[in-house]
Write a structure and sequence with these properties.
Elements: H1 4-14, E1 23-28, E2 34-35, E3 49-55, E4 58-63, E5 67-72, E6 77-83, E7 92-98, E8 102-108, E9 114-119, H2 123-127, H3 143-150, H4 157-162, H5 172-182, H6 195-214, E10 255-259, E11 262-266
Parallel strand pairs: 2-9
Antiparallel strand pairs: 1-7, 3-4, 4-5, 5-9, 6-8, 7-8, 10-11
Helix pairs in contact: 1-6, 3-6, 5-6
The structure holds a DNA duplex.
Length: 272
DNA sequence: AGTCAAACCTGGGCGC
DNA sequence: TGCGCCCAGGTTTGAC
């Protein structure tokens, strides 16, 4: 599942490649995931890429003339840098071609991902980026800010961690890992968190995400970087995907259940 | 308003 | 062996 660290890895891969290249064209096998339409991308032809950046789980490519292409990988999406001459990759749904034969292949088994073309003054609204909360790896994500978001709010910890309008970029994997690091049960009501637990959770979110980035993402099912390579963070997970196995810290069997409608794993021994 | 479940998708794993 | 059911989860949508 591409979450903040996986999207950041892809963006970091694209940053040395795309700026300066001209857009050549979009070819689409699955037009319904291209918004507002495949035809709209004709307006982008001949324009150069200025920069690539990330917001939450969105990949944003800024072009000349204040055009922005925004990509969301949702669950099974991949962006793979290929040569224009290369044949189609597995589950390739759309491709974006650039000068110098650079070709971005948007592969997505489940067709949940989306590609938008917008003007700069509209892209946040078009894509839903305007609804996103604080970037957890920015200076704005202070302990004070975190407490303001969590303290006294209705809902359990996991639901709030996954709420993109509060913190942008945390998904199921890093939510579970963060709760483990902090020693907090994911189904604990946020209102009942003690001071030390709020502190620990704030630190844990940052630690989990940064570790994910350092290891180039977590490849549990479909995620790969812009070169099609897997990350390494799946080897360092304490709870996600380990339901029924022994806790790596205390040896107790990890509990698998549903919290906030998502598969959730935690340790009853380590998470109070 | 706030909360929750369903829908979008499809391959893989499992049970029979 | 093979079929069919169910699960995975980011986000939007619709219902209560």
């Amino acid at each position: 599942m591409p979450e903040l660290p996986e999207v950041q890895t892809v963006v970091s891969d694209l940053q040395p490649i795309l700026p300066g290249l001209k857009f050549v064209g979009l070819s689409s096998k699955v037009p319904k995931v291209v918004l507002p339409s495949v035809d709209a991308f004709e307006n982008l032809e001949g324009l150069r890429v200025l920069e690539v950046f990330r917001r939450g789980k969105f990949i944003c490519i800024l072009f000349e003339n204040e055009k922005v292409v925004t990509i969301h990988l949702r669950m099974t999406g991949r962006i793979i840098v290929s040569d224009a001459e290369d044949e189609a990759l597995p589950f390739e749904r759309n491709r974006l071609d650039f000068s110098n034969g650079v070709s971005l292949r948007f592969c997505d088994m489940r067709k949940f991902g989306r590609v938008w073309l917008s003007n700069w003054d509209r892209y946040e609204e078009d894509t839903g980026i305007y609804k996103l909360g604080v970037e957890p790896l920015s200076e704005e994500f202070t302990l004070e800010k975190f407490k303001e978001l969590f303290d006294g709010r209705n809902g359990n910890v996991k639901r709030l961690l996954l709420d993109q309008s509060l913190i942008a970029g945390v998904g199921n994997i890093y939510a579970d890992e963060s709760c483990f690091y902090a020693g907090v049960r994911p189904d604990k009501e946020a209102k009942l968190l003690e001071e030390r637990e709020l502190n620990a959770l704030h630190e844990a979110v940052i630690k989990a995400l940064m570790q994910g980035i350092r290891n180039r993402g977590t490849s549990v099912s479909d995620y790969a970087d812009a070169y099609g390579k897997s990350g390494k963070n799946q080897e360092l997970l304490y709870v996600y995907g380990r339901g029924g196995k022994e806790c790596l810290r205390c040896g107790e069997l990890l509990v698998k259940c549903k919290v906030a409608g998502r598969g959730t794993v935690y340790c009853e021994g380590c998470q109070g």
